[in-house]
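JOB MANIFEST
job_type = single_chain_structure
chain_count = 1
residues = 473
[input]
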Amino acid sequence: MKYIVFGGYFAVLLMVGFYFYRRNKSAGDFVLGGRSLNYWVTALSAHASDMSAWLFMGFPAAVFIYGIGELWTAISLVFFMFLSWHFVAPRIREKSAKYESATLSSLFAARFHPSSAHKRGAKNPGVRLQMWSALICIFFLIAYIASGLVGLGRMFESLFQVDYKAGVLVAASVVMIYTFLGGFVAVAWNDMIQAIFLLFMIMIVPILAFQALPSETSMVELFAHKHDSPDLVSRAFQAFAWGLGYFGLPHVINKYMSIDHVDNMRKAKYVGLTWQVMALFSASLIGLFGAKLMPSIVNSELLFVEMTHALLPAMMAQVVLCAILAAALSTLDSQVMAAATTLAEDIFEVPEGKEVWLTRGSIIAICCMATGLAWSNTTSIYEMVFYAWAGLGCSFGPLVLWSLTDRPISEGTALTAMCVGAGLSALWPALPVLSVVPSMLPGFFFANLVMYLGSRRDQLAIASVEKPLTQGS
């Protein structure tokens, strides 16, 4: 029966991909949906593409291990996502349309290198920022995609007793096929469908778990539970670091670019934040209730899976567990689309009329590289997600924020800041002595410092040129 349930779910996703296959009339439709998505699709697809299998596996495991203090991570995520929707989303939509940018890399090139061509797919070979930002984006997105494949591989291994690698191949193949066929619009609509489905499913388990708690269990006892709680400073740093990442996630920011009207961004903000609060609250309860119901579980990342099997009839359990699939796929497809678009638009010179097929070829390449990275099954999902999250946030978050200002900033300043952020986020985890401070914090801080100092220098340089001209006139 479980094969029928999961097979049917895959079939629905593929049908959506086929439906949108012939509705893509141009390269702009394929890579950004023609900037025509309504606010419901924009909001729910943005948040679903943000959460990944981490919502069902990584975050409940962290709450299970560290206790109620891990809720600060959820609070930080909601707060910074509000800031992203409120301040970043409307201006990103306006500027990306102005510069005809379909990727962050092309937006950066247009904003920080005024002489570039500013046309989608028409990369100026002299724009170093566009090339390097694209390479960094692809590097961290592949790591992020691999974390989702790891989660799905482990889930298939647990549910179907199949080889982990076979599960990874199945997941990667399904994502690759419907993204290849339908492009951005298929991804966005699938993400919206999956967002609604997974929200209902993640709410069912904590409700049943609450009813299954021993009658003598008090809420004080439940919330006081903790296993290996880190110190307060480390917890605060970690929570704050998660939130900062939102300013630099390409697969989320691309959804901002795709909304039909800037005026609809406010509606999208409230729809998306409502969904996020409900999903994170439910995931938190799974970790807290699971610590009481299953204190001796061997792999805490499978807590949701084991609780679902214990609390629900077999048939219903399979339907609920499809939610993990929905969470993982809704992130994977958006990340694959963002990485493939970046590879096709910003790395290669796109021949006229070949943009769609070059992007489709890039989708296959990205899926293959991520599958290779996920092959070993040796790393924690939580750690893999945070590594990629921090890398994208440190590399692109400062550039996104400064691109929204009108201050003169040169390509060299932006490139230096991006490399500082990427380098610190990539190398910081290799220094255990510094592990109390998450890599996101130094990377984000120093990249912003470079942008600030560089912008001051660039302003002075412009003033020194303009002053003699003014005096001469």
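[summary]
The chain has one domain: 2-386.
The CA atoms of residues 179 and 187 lie 6 Å apart.
exit_status = 0
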